[in-house]
Amino acid sequence: MKSKRWSIYRAIVQLLLWSVFIASIIYLHDPVSNASLGFYPSLSIYSITVGYISGHAVKYVLLGISIFVLTFVLGRFFCGWVCPLGATIDAVDGIIQHKEKIKAHSITRIKFLVFYSSLFIAFLGFNAAGYVDPITIVYRSYELFLYPFVSYIGSEPLSWVLPGYQARDYPFYYYNWAWIAVVFLVVLGLSAFLRRFWCRVLCPLGAMYALVSHLSLFRRVVNENKCTHCGACVTGCRMGAIATGGVGTREHECIKCFDCLKNCNYEAISFTFALPFKVKSVEFPGKGITRRDLLVAAGSGMMVAASKVSLFAASHQSYIIRPPGALPETQFLDACIRCGQCMNVCPTNALHPCITEASFYGMFTPRLIPRIGYCEFTCTRCGQVCPTGAIQKLKRKEKQKFVIGTAYILHDICIPWSEHTNCIVCEEVCPVANKAITLEKKIAKNKHGMQVEVLLPVVHEDRCIGCGICENRCPVGGQAAIVVRKPKLSIGEYYG
Predict the structure, then answer these.
(1) Can you spell out the DSSP letters for 406-451?
(2) Strand pairing of 351-353 and 366-368?
(3) pLDDT tens digits for 62-98?
(4) What are the domain boundaries of the chain?
(5) pTM
(6) Which CATH class is domain 404-496?
(7) What angle is formed at CA 96 by the lines to CA 92 and CA 173, rounded to 5 degrees?
(8) Are 84 and 17 in contact (CB under 8 A)?
(9) End-to-end alpha carbon distance in the chain
(10) Rounded to the nearest 10 degrees, how much is the dihedral formed by the CA atoms of 143, 144, 148, 151?
(11) Tell me: the pLDDT tens digits for 193-213?
């Protein structure tokens, strides 16, 4: 495999898989019946592992496990060929002027500490995957930050290119999107200090694959009789995987990008299948990690886990409303990996990411904001695409009885109650078969002092499921005159 074309082949495959990733976001975001493309978070064996250890199932596991097994054969190919965040970072790296003044190999061990710490925390029941998993970071960033900005501008061209795509008359936007943008831009901006900084220094998924790829069979081999030690492969390596004048390879850092093949003018480099002990790596994964590092990682994990009780207490008392089918709050926060798929698939733009509303442990989890969008009565998408079961998959009839909140009328600003003028919007839009909002007749004086018959809206709490369409459609400007809050019933309890 001496052909210099392999780096081009890799770039083409990377671009194609990135296009599949973008297509999955587009098709999930718009009203189509097929939600089967919402599998990308399953690519991360890291999230699957952490989710399993912390006691929560992941629905889509075969793809992630398959890639993990292939890593034993092909090495850390996922980072260079498949990962959409890696593809995005490569694109940014092509623009940024690099000043690699950092001694990379003194800090690449950090990703192993992040990985070990997250596993330790998971054993204590705290699922930290959603904060640092590159797949959830890139999915969340594209869904909730990038795509909403470009979708409105390019909606018509997309409808020409993608069959089934429906252009919207208005753009979606997500509350708290700026914080997601900050995290994403920081991850990309770190490349200004070191090429592929995130992948080399911080990525826990990369650390997991690095541990496995050290034993892989597909390896870089250098013919020392042809090598002139010119250093072209060393300076051109995006992962800093080449050492000892171009002869040695840090196998756990090599992502099989084949740039070294392209850069070598002497055909001294090849990639071949060989047993690990016949082609030795320069160093072991995580070399340089000290006992002190491990103690710091374990200590920080214990501190995070110890704070779990207070974090849960803060989030459990929160006013936020979860999607229908969501597990009870403490279980929901443990199971959710913050991938954002439920928000992306919501057809009414009702679900938005939390930042501090549900405490730190609830960051990036979904909440329903009725004033922006309501929970569509016949929609069950969020449960269908949730990869971990944090939002249960409900049948339509089950979903239509699932209580996520209760509506309350603010009498002081409600038009019929405060101005004694008829307004029947909330009663009209209520989708419950046996209306949760009814109108009661009353004789009252209007603002002109005349006796008039007024229809006053009344909420029947035992019938209300908290879908929020009444708050969304309320004609009162600013603060709606009818608001949805957490139900008096426990989450998931059905009315008869």
Answers:
(1) EEEE-TTT-IIIII-----HHHHH---SS-SEEEEEEEEE-TTS-E
(2) antiparallel
(3) 777 888 889 999 999 999 999 999 999 999 988 886 6
(4) 6-273, 404-496
(5) 0.86
(6) alpha beta
(7) 45
(8) yes
(9) 68
(10) 0
(11) 889 999 999 999 999 999 999
